[in-house]
């Protein structure tokens, strides 16, 4: 009986215990670091489940549905993870310890990743935290000012326009864009990548880092890794922005009174006040709205992770409103699956649709901004009723075209005094000319990764890119002058398609014994790119037959262009050996051999080696453990990279063509033919050779980070694809691509950062970078000794405003030097530089350089409890800007007000600018060259994150609202519209033809996570 009773009691105890442990409960607690400072953002998850949460800004957390038998995992970047069994506890407080290994974050390198402490090359990283704080709409804006040695300048401030990224200067006489890698796939552009999808960015700056990419790494490499799903249940994120855009400029033009006086002094006695005084800068620019909305879904189990997103950006322009607008919709899906213990598979894909409307720009004769800068202020935007001059109607009637009218029926103002190509810029932007660009872009890759045995894996990855673009340009009939007229409805249409596939197979083997660590990479890849112009045509139709801008409609006279084929195939073999001894002595070598059919048959293959080494001093026995300097590493590298980005292809081929622009060649009634150009079978690879010495330091318990690099980058056999630059006019036809010479870039790079959190919870993080740059052409080919290659043209300088000359910066500014203004006559004194007592074209020399001597940037991030503050700045020192929007053939044009304020007016005046009668003689001199140095506050942002307790009541994980002023404040002596001058061509950097400025934005944003 007693035995039976004991058995019953034991059974009851077991049942009660099991019942108690099977019940769920709520666990809460506080997570701090070793100093007792609360840690916000710590991930707390029930082991082996998707049930999780994160700590709030005060380090507190609450997690429901937890059983006594469960274990809680606490993880935080830079800290050692902890796992704690729940048991009977309902409150669990945790102190996380710093993880020395975690401080060595992993960076992505070519075909792999490695700890930053083991990196021997020059690599800069931008992580998701930095990206999340930016309110930029493009990937390039994320890079701007955040890392040393990287220049990002807008090609235009127009919506949808890209930016030019230069890593350690312009290393080529042509295209100097870096190679872009997105999730392992090479891509021609990153315009379609939504910043919100990016997990981290790596910039490979030196040759040793980029050499694994061989022929495409000469200008550096930008590696983008997009986001992946993480364990913790389904997560939903939503981000929204509303921005008000406006122009912020200190530029002033002459007003009506100043203009009349100036023109009268210039001998234009007929110019007189007429009751109009138009501020064309105010009238041409307008406020515009921009909207951006992103949504993403993500999650993961032990075997599967997923991330899906959709993003929409809709932006009107500050000129022309909807006529210079941009809309982009992007869709992304990233999936990774662990199919077995030895097989991993993944798919990364993005699809985007863009619709861009653009105005005419970057022209010193027919651009909207250029017209805005030179049209006289005596012209109204529109005429009042009854005040339209009869001459306006007469011009329309005599030429059979309608008058130019705005949407409200008002007649646009025709230039009162300005002549030639000058058009009312508001009419030009809003009604006369419209360019529409529609693009569909797909980029995707799929891979299989086989973990065949310990330390060995093999990856096979196939990528595919397909882009379809259609460009249409529509012009309505109008007649302002014989030079500014269009008497029919005209349109052009171009359709082109880019297809690219890339198949890569590479194996990695890692082996360690004792303190020796080896990683060996070997791979093979093949790729094919096809750029095909599907259709290129233009046409016009009489006004009375016009029914729409469609070349397939009746009445159009159409011309179709012939397109020559352009093959682009490449096969590659590559390998890399990485070695370190106890993480102390580091060595890496790589080699790649590429074979591309863009080159002539005899020169198709190129080999690109690289070597690098490092020494981690802080791991030596002599290093004191209590040293304030926690980490120190010295590194050096040398390597070679190639470039084929400047090649169209067919350099060694000459084609026979029978039509030009769709019209058959006719010689006095007989059908004829001609050659496409002269072949160049001697074309060789453009090769960039780079030497780099660097050092990395961490101090004060890793709060301070500092790195320094010295580099020398030499680009040999630089390729220019415009053979007409070296072909004499007597040749009849121009040459194909050619090797122009050697360019050298060298300089220093510095990066400094300091961050900490005080005992009171105040967070701060300061980062700054600075780099120097000296650019020089050290050799020039295919021209006589002492001669130059002529670069960008301009109306005021038929000899070109830029030149490529040995001993000078690449594509420097070319013109006359001046020695003041003649106090007796008000004329420009041009310097006789060659001493022959005659001032002519032979005296033109370098008058400026577009390359900055110093680039700098930085970021200040502050936070306290729920509030955060970010300030980002960026700028240049020592670069010049050449204003070429002035029209020497049109004497009655407006000018910046400093031409008036600083002019000579009478004998004896000591002036900066000539008298009004002599100003045209200054257009090809250094008086048009200004210092382009500037500092721009890229962002001032204040944010507030909803406290965790309130968020939980609202059933959300996180809610942050912010307001940001982007590109709002600029400090510069440049008197033009925008010192952050863009460029559309490699030989026009710093040439201001009437640049569409970058808009200042007031951004209101919201980030919401479920």
Describe the protein's architecture and organization.
The chain has 1010 residues and is mostly beta strands. It contains 11 helices and 57 strands. Helix 7 (368-374) runs antiparallel to helix 9. The relative contact order is 0.12. Residues 1-6 and 8-21 have low confidence and may be disordered.
Brief account:
The protein is mainly beta and 1010 residues long.
Write the layout of secondary structure elements.
Layout: H1 2-22, E1 24-32, E2 43-46, E3 52-54, E4 60-67, E5 71-75, E6 82-85, E7 94-95, E8 106-109, E9 112-115, E10 123-127, H2 128-133, H3 139-143, E11 150-154, E12 163-167, E13 179-182, E14 185-187, E15 198-204, H4 207-210, E16 221-226, E17 235-246, H5 256-265, H6 280-284, E18 288-300, E19 304-317, E20 321-340, E21 343-358, H7 368-374, H8 390-398, H9 425-432, E22 433-453, E23 456-475, E24 478-479, E25 485-486, E26 489-513, E27 516-541, E28 557-560, E29 569-581, E30 585-596, E31 605-616, E32 629-643, E33 656-657, E34 659-660, E35 663-664, E36 666-667, E37 670-671, E38 674-675, E39 686-699, E40 704-720, E41 738-757, E42 762-772, E43 774-780, E44 789-790, E45 802-804, E46 812-815, E47 818-821, E48 828-830, E49 845-848, E50 854-864, E51 867-877, E52 880-883, H10 897-901, E53 929-931, E54 934-945, H11 948-953, E55 958-972, E56 991-992, E57 1000-1009
Parallel strand pairs: 1-7, 13-16, 52-56
Antiparallel strand pairs: 1-4, 2-3, 2-5, 5-6, 8-9, 10-15, 11-12, 13-14, 15-16, 17-18, 17-57, 18-19, 19-20, 20-21, 21-22, 22-23, 23-26, 24-25, 26-27, 27-28, 27-29, 29-30, 30-31, 31-32, 32-39, 33-38, 34-35, 36-37, 39-40, 40-41, 41-42, 41-43, 42-50, 44-45, 45-46, 46-49, 47-48, 50-51, 51-54, 52-53, ...
Helix pairs in contact: 7-9
């Amino acid at each position: 009986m007693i035995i039976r009773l004991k058995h019953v009691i034991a059974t009851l105890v077991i049942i009660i215990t099991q019942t108690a442990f099977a019940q769920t409960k709520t666990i809460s607690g506080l997570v701090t670091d070793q100093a007792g400072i609360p840690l916000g953002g710590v991930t707390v998850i029930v082991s082996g489940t998707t049930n999780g949460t994160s700590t709030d800004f005060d380090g507190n957390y609450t997690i429901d549905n937890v059983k006594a038998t469960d274990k809680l995992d606490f993880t935080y970047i830079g800290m050692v993870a902890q796992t704690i069994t729940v048991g009977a506890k309902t409150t669990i407080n945790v102190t996380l310890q710093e993880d020395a290994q975690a401080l060595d974050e992993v960076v992505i390198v070519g075909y792999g990743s490695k700890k930053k402490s083991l990196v021997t090359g020059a690599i800069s990283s931008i992580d998701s935290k930095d990206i999340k704080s930016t309110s930029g709409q493009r990937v390039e804006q994320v890079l701007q000012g955040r890392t040393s040695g990287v220049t990002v300048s807008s090609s235009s401030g127009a919506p949808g326009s890209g930016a030019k990224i230069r890593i350690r200067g312009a290393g080529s006489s042509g295209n100097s864009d870096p190679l872009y890698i997105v999730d392992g796939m090479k891509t021609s552009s990153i315009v379609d990548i939504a910043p919100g999808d990016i997990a981290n960015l790596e910039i490979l700056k030196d040759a040793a880092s980029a050499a694994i990419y061989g022929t495409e790494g000469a200008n550096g490499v930008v590696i983008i890794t997009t986001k992946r799903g993480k364990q913790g249940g389904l997560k939903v994120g939503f981000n929204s922005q509303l921005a008000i855009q406006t122009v912020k400029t200190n530029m002033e033009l002459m007003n009506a009174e100043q203009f009349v006086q100036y023109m009268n002094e210039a001998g234009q006695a007929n110019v007189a006040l007429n009751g109009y005084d138009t501020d064309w800068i105010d009238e041409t620019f307008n406020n515009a709205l921009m909207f951006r909305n992103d949504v993403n879904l993500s999650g993961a189990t032990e075997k599967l992770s997923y991330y899906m997103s959709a993003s929409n950006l809709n932006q009107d322009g500050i000129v022309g409103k909807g006529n210079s607008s941009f809309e982009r919709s992007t869709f992304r899906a990233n999936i990774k699956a662990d199919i077995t213990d030895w097989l991993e598979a993944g798919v990364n894909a993005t699809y985007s649709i863009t619709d861009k409307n653009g105005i005419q720009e970057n022209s010193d004769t027919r651009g909207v901004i250029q017209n805005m800068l030179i049209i006289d202020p005596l012209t109204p935007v529109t005429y009042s009723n009854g005040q339209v001059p009869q001459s306006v109607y007469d011009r329309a009637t005599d030429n059979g075209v309608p008058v130019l009218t705005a949407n409200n029926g008002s007649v646009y103002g025709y230039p009162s005094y300005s002549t030639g190509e000058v058009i009312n810029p508001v009419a030009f932007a809003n009604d006369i000319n419209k360019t529409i660009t529609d693009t569909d872009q797909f980029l995707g890759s799929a891979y299989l990764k086989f973990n065949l045995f310990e330390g060995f894996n093999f990856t096979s990855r196939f990528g595919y890119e397909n882009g379809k673009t259609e460009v249409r340009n529509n012009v309505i009939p109008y007649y302002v002058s014989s030079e500014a007229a269009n008497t029919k409805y005209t349109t052009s249409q171009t359709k082109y398609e880019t297809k690219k596939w890339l198949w890569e197979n590479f194996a990695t083997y890692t082996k360690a014994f004792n303190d020796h660590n080896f990683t060996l990479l070997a791979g093979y890849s093949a790729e094919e790119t096809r750029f095909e112009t599907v259709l290129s045509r233009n046409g016009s139709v009489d006004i009375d037959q016009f029914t729409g801008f469609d070349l397939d409609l009746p009445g159009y006279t159409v011309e179709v262009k012939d397109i020559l084929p352009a093959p682009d195939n490449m096969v590659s073999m590559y390998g890399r050996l990485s070695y370190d001894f106890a993480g102390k002595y580091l060595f890496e070598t790589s080699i790649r051999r590429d074979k591309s059919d863009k080159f002539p048959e005899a020169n198709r293959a190129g080999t690109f080696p690289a070597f690098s080494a490092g020494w981690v001093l802080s791991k030596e026995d002599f290093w004191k453990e209590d040293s304030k300097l926690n980490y120190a590493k010295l590194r050096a590298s040398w390597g070679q990279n190639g470039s084929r980005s400047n090649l169209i292809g067919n350099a060694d081929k000459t084609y026979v063509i029978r039509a030009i622009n769709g019209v058959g060649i006719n010689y006095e009634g007989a059908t004829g033919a001609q050659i496409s150009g002269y072949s160049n079978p001697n074309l060789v690879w453009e090769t960039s050779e780079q030497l780099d010495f660097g050092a990395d330091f961490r101090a004060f318990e890793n709060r301070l980070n500092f790195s320094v690099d010295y580099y020398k980058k030499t680009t040999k056999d630089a390729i220019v694809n415009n053979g007409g630059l070296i072909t004499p006019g007597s040749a009849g036809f121009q040459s194909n691509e050619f090797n122009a010479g050697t360019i050298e870039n060298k300089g220093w790079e510095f990066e400094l950062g300091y961050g900490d959190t005080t005992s009171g919870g105040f967070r701060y993080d300061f980062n700054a970078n600075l780099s120097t740059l000296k650019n020089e052409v050290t050799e020039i080919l295919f021209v006589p000794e002492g001669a130059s290659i002529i670069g960008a043209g301009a109306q005021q300088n038929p000899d070109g405003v830029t030149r490529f000359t040995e001993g000078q910066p690449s594509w420097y500014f070319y013109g006359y030097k001046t020695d003041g203004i003649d106090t007796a006559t008000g004329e420009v004194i041009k310097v006789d530089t060659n001493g022959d007592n005659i001032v002519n074209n032979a005296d033109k020399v370098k008058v400026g350089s577009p390359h900055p001597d110093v680039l700098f940037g930085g970021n200040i991030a502050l936070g306290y409890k729920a509030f955060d503050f970010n300030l980002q700045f960026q700028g240049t020192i020592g670069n010049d800007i050449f204003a070429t929007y002035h029209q020497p053939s049109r004497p009655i044009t407006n000018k910046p007000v400093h031409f008036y304020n600083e002019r000579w007016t009478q004998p004896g005046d000591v002036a900066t600018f000539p008298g009004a009668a002599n100003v045209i003689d200054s257009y090809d001199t250094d008086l048009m060259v200004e210092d382009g140095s500037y500092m721009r506050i890229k962002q001032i942002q204040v944010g507030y994150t909803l406290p965790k307790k309130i968020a939980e009541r609202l059933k959300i994980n996180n809610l942050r609202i912010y307001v940001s002023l982007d590109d709002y404040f600029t400090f510069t002596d440049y008197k033009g519209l925008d010192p952050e001058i863009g460029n559309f061509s490699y030989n026009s950097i710093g040439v201001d033809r009437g640049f569409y400025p970058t808009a200042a934005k007031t951004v209101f944003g919201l980030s919401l996570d479920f």
